[in-house]
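User: Hey, my collaborator sent me this sequence without any context and asked if I could get a structure. I don't really work with proteins. Can you help?
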Amino acid sequence: MTRIRACLAVLWVAGLLVSATRAQDINDPRGDFGKELPRVPALSPADSLQSLRVADGFRVELAAHEPQVHDPVAVDFDEQGRMYVVQLPPYNAYVVEGFRKTGSIALLEDRDEDGKYEHSVEFATNLRYPTAVACWQGGVLVGDAPDLLYLKDTDGDGKADERRVLLTGFGTDKAGEAHLNSIRWGLDARFHFSTSLSGGDVGAPGASTVSVRNRGVILDPRTGSFELTSGGGQHGMSMDDWGRKFVCSNSVPAQLLIYDDRYVARNPWLQSPAAAVDIAPDNKFTELFRISPPEPWRVLRTRLRKEGKFRGSDEGGKPFGFFTGATGVTIYRGDAWPKSHRGNLLVGDVANNLVYRASLADEGLSLVARRADPGAEFLASSDIWFRPVQMANAPDGTLLVLDMNRELIEGAAFLPPEFLKHLDAVSGSDRGRIYRIAPASGPLRRQSPRLGKMSSKELIGLLEHENGWHRDTASRLLFERLDEQGGDVATITELRRVARESLLDRGRAAAMGLLGALGKLDEAEVLAALNAASAELRVFALQCAEPLVGESAALRARLPELADDPSARVRYQLAFSLGAFLSPGSVDALAQLARRDGADRWMQLAILSSCGTAGPTSRQGPERPRGSAADALFRKLAADTAFRRSDAGRVMLVELAREIGQGRSAAALAVVLGSMSDIGLDDARDRQLNESLVKALVEKQHESVRQQVLAARGGNAAEILRQMLNAAQATLADDKAELPERLEAVRSLRSARFAEVRELLAAQLRPSQPQSIQAAAVETIAGFDDADVPTVLLAAWPGLSPAVRLRGAEVLLSRTAWLHRFLDAVESGPVSRGDLDPSRVQLLKQHPDERVTARVEKLFATAGLTARSEVARRYQPSLELTGDAMRGKAVFKKNCSACHQLEGVGATIGADLRGIAQRGLPSVLLNILDPNREVKPKFLTYVVRTEDGQVLSGMITAESANSITLRQADGTDVAIQRLEIQGMKSTGLSFMPEGLEKNIDLKAMSDLLAYLGSM
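Assistant: No problem. I've predicted the 3D structure and written it out in structure-token form, which is a compact way to encode the shape of the chain:
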């Protein structure tokens, strides 16, 4: 759903939706605690309006309210100014027995032009769980997971009588907070929307499907075809005037999608970071200025804590003061507000009853979103029923705020069940408000536009309108009217004029995007825009050039010239766009960009994306020559002494070598090896570079391929390797060598034959070695595919520390042949059944090899997990003990830090635990002991089978068009390129393991809870 995030949602442990409090504490016979949970009365629409406080210079008006509308979570306006509203009464209904209301779409009109939408009809009913809407061809697209629907009224009665499923397979989650959302019309005349956290395997009904997990979707509404692009966030995705995308998540108020991963997909060997980057300086902990009182249930929880009946800190029932329910991120694109406010970012926090505003400024290739209202919020309410779940730019240039108006916005599963006996989880499902935020001075409201009655020429004129809604709607209507193969010649001619001559740069972009979508864009319009004064227009022109450059010599000549453009943003886009064609000029330009901007990690990514061997992305049009710019770029950069000896140069060259090694092109390998000979070994920096290049060339190769690479003609790689191995052996034999040097020496052994370094690696696994050396040796061994790997690891097993055994087990379980050797060792020793975590046993029972599952079932028949409810019951006394927070910190470090981070200790993979005391430690205890009650999609464990026979399991921590990163049970990350994946599926199990009670007794659990309670 609308990610109407709970105040406590951010405090998940392993992302679970579970909460519990001991019934004997809440239903204490000594007092009627129900009296302390009074129902907070709802305010009338007029009183709700009076409870709002808005920034100076603005006023708030009621645009719509019940009974015309209820539970609003998304809106869109058609060309007549009518408003389609998604209504979602089923939110939180999963805990209410017998709740029957379904989702719907209301169609609202302001017929008397007084600014209030007084007329409403139920346009569509009986929707499962609608969360998004967008107008198209007289009807609407509706996100109603698992479906994307098209609904239309064909007989004029205001009710949809046509209903078609365009796409299906979108994911859902029980809490309803991670569904597809935010369908937006883009400059490319396509619909863009977010798939949220639930993802799904999506396709047209009856057609093949594709995973959309952590991705965005770009839909051609005429054909139903779609592409995937960068994604992120939960509920809320907005685009600015130039198509840059912004998302948010419950505790993350603002992120920029800094690149389109369709570019990354061109280079299958490129490892790319997540596209969503935080742009709010203080992120979740941005200070918020709430003016609403604490909720009664929070006050009760505080009293129970004071009396020792509910563990946790005494926070006095105060709100958090930071983001816990961020939703509905929106870029203001209207023309009614002061010009200084255009482009502002706004995001609601439903738990704190407010709307936050930030101004955006360039920060390198990214942006920074800084608070725009010092000491206060742009909009805040003293009424806890105010729940601003989404916003919308309106036709009149103002901003609408959608207030779901619920008594309880926290997900019901986040509250103790005993509290829910005294609350109504769906209270307010018959209410809802839509507010308009307008300047305090000026006309009350403009008349509703009637774009549907305009001629095509008039619509083209609106492409130059200052109001983004007018430009978007005019673009959509023109796209609906114009035939892709032909079209009105006069209309196309007028579009060309706007594209070349408009005084509004955004108008030129709108016309160019529309022409491009219609297949009518010429090089003349693009060349003109590439010379524009506006850097934003030059960036967009580069994007428009990509489908044309294969057929345009003028564009192929012009694009490389932009490598010296004064704008870093233009150069960044150029680095991506140069991948649309391969020529000496494009390689020269990439090299120029690398020398000038290569120290920036995003510029490195853009340059490397253009060096792939894959075919073109859809935006590139005619297929460019097969092949790669990687070898040509490597040769050019390696010959530049100053560049290759710089830090940025080394990073770039090593990454190019890694990709060339994985691509295994004989010609490209020869280029690298030849360049290594030219670089030589005389200078220490060059020698170090050559060693890094050898490692990069072979680090992901099978041993047989590795030796072929090293023996290839035209280079001295074999000699470099020999020297590396000799140096590594000498270092490892030197008792006085520093630990970092020894670790690097162990890792260097990865480039050799396993037979050559087997004994040396075995020596590093001895009990006398530091744990870090043992761990490095296991990691190095994991890179080999040799039948003797299990022999070495199992021989050393008795002397390995528990942490190293955990990593060793992951290595042995990754290949079926090795796994059987491991099970042999469990049967006969030296491996104990207890060396394998119970949750890992559960995963092995889902292994794709039936022989493995049969053996595991037999071997671990008596090692099943104790019923979680029984474990939770046994650990209840830990809530009564007086724990020691300092000892608890040590328990956390040992048992939890592989996934969670507190006070600088651990990894930020699992849920954010800062402020976890607010959750209530009985709930936290249950989360720790029973992580599989209900698992948030982002914390699921996946099993991945690779083309070379490995079977890996873990949680997906990062994902792009061409790679995923798995966090394994031992805390290590494994990056896997998509073309190496043979199959992947979710286990349905949480990444947080069951069975932690094996390592944490009652006293230690009490200490851990004391530490978490101190946060």
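In plain terms: Residues 1-31, 311-319, 613-626 have pLDDT under 50 and may be disordered. You can pass these tokens on to your collaborator as they are.
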